[in-house]
Design a protein that fits this description.
The protein has a 5-stranded parallel beta sheet with strand order 4-7-10-3-11. It has helices spanning 16-19, 33-40, 75-87, 101-106, 108-111, 117-129, 157-161, 172-175, 191-195, 198-203, 245-252, 257-261, 274-282, 291-308, 322-325, 333-344, 350-367, 374-384, and strands spanning 8-12, 26-30, 91-95, 148-149, 162-163, 169-170, 180-183, 205-210, 213-218, 222-227, 265-269. Helix content is 39%, strand content 12%. Strand 5 (162-163) and strand 6 (169-170) form a beta hairpin. The N and C termini lie far apart (54 Å). By secondary structure, it is α/β, with parallel strands linked by helices. Helix 3 (75-87) packs across helix 17 (350-367), helix 14 packs across helix 17 (350-367) and helix 17 (350-367) packs across helix 18 (374-384).
């Protein structure tokens, strides 16, 4: 209503506290339809209404979440997670059960900086539609933390993408707007549900057509997928896999090529051995990085990207299109040699080539460099991984 130029909006008292979060528009709370008519006829002053106390909107207790310092023996995976947070990159983790995939994913929201006010209002608007609180329980103010959605793999298309018989409602991808959507056991999701993510990943919104009309919900989320390497999950264990070659090939096809091509970071998570864990615990190494320390670096990296992209419609490296990467941000041949070789050998596609460029810029921003060097590009290629990261690549 504010964006359309409305000077005033009338809402029920139960919604008044939430509506007052919006600046630039006069919000009036009413107790009944009779009260609303009186307001519209400029008779509200003479209308007697009971004294009402604005209710405290129920909210889920807010907490910072688990800390990244809890992760042991997965230094490269932690580095990849920090890079993903700094650039807003989508991520796939493949590993045996218990390797730490879910543990890592649950720590990603704690690495993300607070949302800007307008972004938080966008997320709050979607949450309000489904009856969720938009307030931080501790301060009773607008919740500025990025959302974390982790639907079960049995969820339907409507639950994930949004929908409904008559009036469309937002799904998990919209509830995760400006936050993280985590799909654990990703190959177990219905294939049509996974393929339906491809368009929102590119456009940042979902358009739902129903008999009552068309609804457009925001859906600019950071996607994190976790998967076993094969159906039995033991493909990384020596002589442990019980799957046939056909079963492994079928399992590897559950995540389609077009979807995987849109994932910037595709990481293999190896389980931590008992000996490695014992060495870590017995060593006198310095304390591991905390989420707060990592978030400080991530905020600086995001600021560097925003300054570089100040005159563009984008504010993070993951959003920069290919023509801009290979045009205004073109890198010298000596820097791109590793990714050029990967493209020549068919290890990555042209879209994968551009994803590596985006990753390299994020790595450079985290290091405080003006532009990527050859080492940054080599790390980006390693993070990009294989085009068939599941059982078919093992």
């Amino acid at each position: 209503a504010r964006d359309l130029g409305a000077p005033r909006v009338i809402v029920p008292f139960d919604s008044f506290a939430e509506a007052e979060l919006i600046s630039g528009i006069n919000v009036v709370g009413v107790a009944s339809l009779k009260h609303a008519v009186a307001v519209l006829n400029n008779q509200a002053a003479s209308f007697e209404r009971p004294e009402l106390v604005l209710p405290q909107i129920p909210s889920i207790p807010f907490h910072q979440g688990p800390d990244i310092s809890d992760v042991k023996g997965q230094d490269f995976a932690v580095q990849a997670l920090i890079i993903a947070a700094a650039g807003g990159h989508h991520m796939l983790m493949v590993g045996s059960p218990g390797a730490g995939k879910t543990m890592l994913a649950e720590r990603l929201p704690g690495l993300l900086p607070d949302l800007e006010i307008e972004a938080a209002l966008q997320s709050a608007a979607v949450a309000s539609i489904v009856g969720r609180s938009v307030f931080d329980a501790q301060s009773n103010k607008l919740d500025l933390r990025p959302k974390f959605e982790a639907p079960h793999h049995s969820s339907s298309m409507a639950a994930i993408v949004g929908g409904g018989l008559k009036t469309p409602r937002p799904g998990s991808i919209s509830l995760a707007h400006n936050g993280v959507l985590f799909l654990d056991e990703a190959p177990e999701f219905q294939t049509p549900v996974l393929d339906a993510l491809r368009q929102p990943l590119e456009s940042g919104e979902i358009r739902l057509h129903r008999s009552a009309g068309t609804a457009v919900f925001p859906a600019r989320f950071q996607l994190v997928l976790a998967a076993n390497p094969c159906a039995c999950g033991k493909a990384f264990a020596p002589h442990g896999c019980q799957c046939s070659a056909m079963s492994r090939a079928k399992y590897s096809q559950k995540l389609s090529g077009p979807l995987l091509d849109r994932i910037d970071i595709r990481l293999v998570i190896q389980p931590v051995s008992a000996l490695s864990l014992q060495l870590i615990e017995d060593s006198n190494a310095k304390s591991p990085m905390t989420s707060a320390e990592a978030r400080s670096k991530i905020v600086s990296a995001r600021l560097a990207a925003q300054q570089r992209l100040a005159e563009t419609p984008w504010d993070s490296n993951s959003q920069v299109p290919a023509n801009y990467l290979r045009g205004r941000l073109r890198l010298p041949k000596q820097v791109t040699s590793s990714v050029d070789l990967a493209l020549t050998r068919g290890r990555i596609s042209m879209r994968g080539y551009d994803r590596c460029l985006r990753l390299a810029w994020t790595i450079a921003d985290l290091a405080g460099n003006d532009s990527p060097n050859s080492n940054d590009m080599a790390l980006a290629v390693a993070l990009r991984g294989h085009d068939v990261p599941l059982g078919g690549a093992i």
